[in-house]
Amino acid sequence: MTETVKDPSVYPTLRNLQYSPLKQGEEQYIVLWDPTGLSSEKLVIPLSMFYVFQFFDGEHSLDQVGGEYLKKYGEFLLPDRLQRLVADLEDKLFLEGDRCDQAKALAIETFRNAPTRPSVFAGKSYEAEAEKLSQQLDGFFSSKEGPDKTPSEHAGQRIKGVIAPSFDLKEAGPLYAWTYKELQEAETPSVFVLLGTCHAGLEGGIAVTGKDFETPLGVVPVNQSILNAFRSNGGESFFTEELAHAQEHSIEFQLPFLQHTIGRQKPISIVPILCAFPPDCLADKSLKELFDRVDTFLSLFKQAVAASGEEICVIASGELAHIGLRYGDRTLPTDFSFHRCMQTDLEMLKHVENLEPEAFAEFILKEGNARRISGFSTMFTMLKLIQAEKGQVLRYDRGITDQFNSTVTYASIAFY
Questions:
Q1: Residue 7 — very low, low, confident or very high, per pLDDT cuts 50/70/90?
Q2: Cα separation of 124 and 367, whole Å?
Q3: Considering only CA atoms, which of 298, 294, 269 is closest in space to residue 280?
Q4: What is 119-415's CATH number, 3.10.310.30, 3.40.50.1010, 2.40.30.40, 3.40.830.10?
Q5: Contact of 238 with 206, CB cutoff 8 Å
Q6: What DSSP state is assigned to residue 159?
């Protein structure tokens, strides 16, 4: 029996958007945007209208959506208002459908034909001119929140990996500096595997690209030896979602620091990899296919590194807890809730310091991932890739992300 295809203009399907609360006077609104960067638009809607978005799932007709609104608020939502909303969502590429598919196909072609992956956030999150950027980076190292000038206790030792935030450089720059001071004073190879958190999500958990990355400090080449070995040994499917690299900031934010510290000492190359998979895939049988795919990646990538003969250092970019209204909590963070979160973070990071990836995942699962640890996938992947004896938390901090005191926590960690 042939399944009837539902008209997307009547049964709209919302894409995987991000949102944040906004308060203007006594009125509350929601701001929505596309984390993939396929659309650069934003949409501001009243809180009451945001309620109906959960029914834009391709299964509810506009009439049914209106009925849900009536049940919730006791008033009619005029059909033409819903139709205007759907038209606006369609125009902004916020809905699944032909228009979105065409835009995505064009974006993929454009990205693959580009000679490099250009810097997207220069001039926004950090300085766009090389000299000013170098001064900005120096300022992060010398700031009162930055690392002190005392040499690291591990100076001169071979470093296997580090963890840094993916938070905005203007806010978290001094904490990045803790990571990269440690890296600068250690003995490092010239090849860096960059594991970035894909905030927009990935269907297949892992996305590799062969693009060189451009920053105001120059072009950072990819390591062709490792990538060629990875492709030829069955890794081609992990390039399928490489468009995710086009607008994701988590790898880009590492590069100015890497160029400023290690790149001034010697030529460097990178292997850029985005990660996005939940700790649930280690325990949930319905996610076994995703777990197996991540496991396959780890096996193939280790083989590729061995075949290339290269030595690597792994840099994982990701954050820890996300608490507050912006991230789905019902209450605003307080000093008490933050300190409790910090204690829980540091307890969780003991498993990271001890190189216990499964225990790290189990800790988050026991919490029900209630604090939304967004950097899990990069940190787990790093712990699986490196062969180190110990890790050490160098610094811990947080950033405030909205007027409601929503909070993101992050840490600088090194492995030897």
A1: confident
A2: 35
A3: 294
A4: 3.40.830.10
A5: yes
A6: P
